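hey m, so remember when u said the tokens were messed up on ur end? i reran from scratch. heres the input so u can diff it against urs
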Amino acid sequence: MKCILCPRRCRVDRDRGSGYCGEHSDVRVARASLHMWEEPCISGKMGSGTVFFSGCPLKCVFCQNRKIISGDRGSVLTPRQLASLFLLLQDKGAANINLVTPTHFTPQIAEALRMSKAEGLSIPVVYNTSGYERVETLQMLAGLVDIYLPDLKYYSGELAARYSNAPDYFEQASSAISEMVRQAGAPLFDNALPDDQMMRRGVIVRHMVMPGHVRDSMKVIKYLYDTYKDDIYISIMNQYTPPAAMADHPEINRRVTRREYEKVIDYAIALGVENAFVQEGDTARESFIPDFDEDMYLKEVSVKSKISPS
């Protein structure tokens, strides 16, 4: 079958070759862990049960997960083994199952979620994505995903073309977010204390402020607030970390300044945004980027399920 899962619609037969995402039809997982560096209502005290999938349909030039978006890294899992991994993370105390860059494996993930839910998976499922999605692909997940955690990276098509080779990014991502809100509904939290609430359902849209592009960030925030008001949360991030070599894009080969980030936050406050997460301190550093040389719980599932590393 020719793949049209993401907006690239490259129509590659992934049983025989790899698509723009760099992946064949076999699911590859690069890392599984209890991750503490998500929004507080996602990570909680025990950590979010993150499953990092290999490959990516977007491939931004500044990608923080660049170690796993290309090349040959990860373990091949069947849907049955993926379901076992979800259940293992739940057993380890994960606050949720957090599917990171899952787009190009959506049909297999949907199958694994149905299996694991039938066998006792009860924690929320988080779909953690670049936002570059097709509505038709997201509809495969209706009733299976509780929390959507998309990016909205750009308002400008010119920026999206330059840094992600996706001039249609805003059009696709804004339509995708609308579908996510339709599926997940308004934010719903558990009955824990206000300072320790965990999200059960809803949408958190992430936007990472980029150096030199404060105006575009303001347009993104305005669009989200004008469109959804308090029906979503907005996570405004300052953790942009350029890769070691950015010779082709010198204008973004630096971190975001405190002043740039504060301008975006001040703008959001002036608009009336209240449902928001902001970052404080030195988040733009390598320690916030997962160590993909570790595979954490994949090792345990590998022993139990006889997964073969690629």
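this time it looks ok to me. Residues 169-184 form the longest helix (16 residues). if urs says something different then somethings off w ur setup not the seq
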